[in-house]
Amino acid sequence: MNYILECSLAAALVAGLIGCASRPADAPSNAPASTSVCARQYAESATSAEQLQALLDRCGWDTEASIPALQKLNGLPAPSNLQPIALKRRVAGAQVVAVTLEADVFFNLMQAYPHPLAFSKLDQLAARISEGFEVTRIEITGYADPNERTEMPQWAVDRKRAEFMRKYFEARGIPPGRIIVTAAAPRHENTLEGRARDRSTAVKVVILRQNKT
């Protein structure tokens, strides 16, 4: 698979989707990837998601650093600086309604750790969750595009994406027993745009809140 072609075309077709990341500022598009930067030892020395994603953005699939970097990135925990979602206090006697919130979170090719822009979207979802006084359940469905499923099935990247989202919500204070995680077959056409949309997780959150009317 041509990693750079897949990413650049998908990003152009799917405005706003975080299906691919751009090259880092210090890696001009017309410059060849440095052998030292794309060597295996660089992946082994990288420790943060930012470092690993920058390496993959720059080196693609054609270097010895790619697989070690992906394995390390996909095994990272949720960020340590996440704060519990502050739910509202329930008012006695107020009318209660159940509200369902939905969001799709997109990932780079073969990655199960979200891009920084995806965390901004999750912050927006957390703000909406905080309007309630209780989270009754969160349903997370992980997806992978057809190429990810057929070329690297042993990676189970759809399941890993969903499991990362579980860790994210647990880190934000949601009880584990209220989080349901599954993986599902691709839901879009096998095109550049469809594959970008399938590198994702679908998140459905049911909250209880006081009726605003």
Automatic annotation (TrEMBL):
Keywords: Membrane, Signal. Residues 94-209 form the OmpA-like domain. One of its GO terms (cellular component) is membrane. InterPro entries: OmpA-like, OmpA-like_sf. The keyword Signal applies. Residues 1-27 form the signal peptide. The keyword Lipid biosynthesis does not apply. This is OmpA family protein. It comes from Variovorax paradoxus.
